[in-house]
Amino acid sequence: MLVSILIPCYNAEPWIGEAIRSALDQDYANKEVIVVDDGSTDGSLEVIRGFGDRITFQPGPHAGANAARNRLTDLARGEWLQYLDADDYLLPQKLTSQVQMLGDAQGIVDVICSPVICHTINSGADRVLAINHADAALNFINWGMLQTTGLLFRRTAVLEVGGWKNDQPCCQEHELLLRLLVAGGRFITGSIPASVYRVHSEGTVSRRDPLRVIRIRMELTNRLVQYLDTIGNLTSAHRSALFVARMEAARSAYAKGDQQLAAQLYEKACEVRVEWPRGLAALPFSYRCALQILGFKRAEQLASLQRRWRSFGSPSFSQSQ
């Protein structure tokens, strides 16, 4: 079974070589490595060309990451697709571990999801982004479907939902996963992290405009919840996860300075108030008390003060905020 490793590149000179080497070094033998350069203006092209005929390479004008991914999908010959961002890399066993998960279920699986190792460049810290549930919809609501590198897609499934959305500004893999879920896509999850996702301090949409990311995340989540409700599959676990997701989004929006958006998201969280006993348990105890006694705005004002105190090294219950 051929697996295509697909690498879009745009101005990733410091990273692209390691990404390509990690693809070539996969211990899974039946693979191809394809790179599309999306109009890089740094030294990425020279690095890519240095791999010669070990890879398939196609340069082109700058059209955006998703357009590059769609070009890669068109070039791919494999039944399964591994999308690999140019600043990330795979561990040698990544493809083997996921293909083995298929077992006898090859015809009934569309997406394989595995944990990723999140590497923060500034601090050098690593942490595993685990997958906590077998239910793909629940993972999505929890925003636990992970980053592109940890996924393996059946090519026909991607094509059937129209590929990547070219004008999606952020949460691109989540938007694709949403369409796959709504189309009845079949997901399986693993427990072994075998890819590394690098987190940069700046430059990405999520760092430049975090409020936009919050809005888009909740739009995608709401679309999935509406779909689940329509088909009668919205469970109490989904509702609890939705409450937590909306509360986390509201708190993030408040911390980022948009009190109006925060209030709107809090109101949406209250729409699933029936799940508060379970949902509140996911919040810090001190915040939980403040929320129930003082309300959302006052609780957030208190949490903001606590964060300021903590920044000066003052020990307090704010450490749970």
What's a concise summary of this model?
The protein is of the alpha/beta class and 321 residues long. It is built from 14 helices and eleven strands. It folds into two domains: 3-207, Spore Coat Polysaccharide Biosynthesis Protein SpsA, Chain A (Alpha-Beta Complex), CATH 3.90.550; 209-313, no CATH class.
Topology:
Blueprint: E1 3-9, H1 13-24, E2 31-38, H2 44-49, E3 56-60, H3 65-75, E4 80-83, E5 89-90, H4 94-102, E6 111-113, E7 116-120, E8 126-129, H5 136-141, E9 151-154, H6 155-160, H7 172-182, E10 187-189, E11 195-199, H8 205-208, H9 210-230, H10 236-255, H11 259-270, H12 276-280, H13 285-294, H14 296-311
Helix pairs in contact: 7-9, 9-10, 10-11, 13-14
Supply the key terms.
hexosyltransferase activity; Glycosyl transferase, family 2; Spore Coat Polysaccharide Biosynthesis Protein SpsA, Chain A; Nucleotide-diphossugar_trans; globular; 321 residues; Glyco_trans_2-like; four-stranded mixed beta sheet; seven-stranded mixed beta sheet; transferase; alpha/beta
Share in β-strands: 15-25%
Supply the number of structural domains.
2
Order of helices and strands: EHEHEHEEHEEEHEHHEEHHHHHHH
Report helical residue fraction: 40-55%
Q: What is the CA-CA span between the terminal residues?
A: 48 Å
Determine Rg (CA atoms, Å): 21 Å
CATH class of the largest domain: Alpha Beta
Within CATH, the superfamily of the largest domain carries the name Spore Coat Polysaccharide Biosynthesis Protein SpsA, Chain A
Helix count, DSSP H or I runs of 4 or more residues: 14
Low-pLDDT sequence parts: 316-321
CATH architecture of the largest domain: Alpha-Beta Complex
Name the average pLDDT: 90
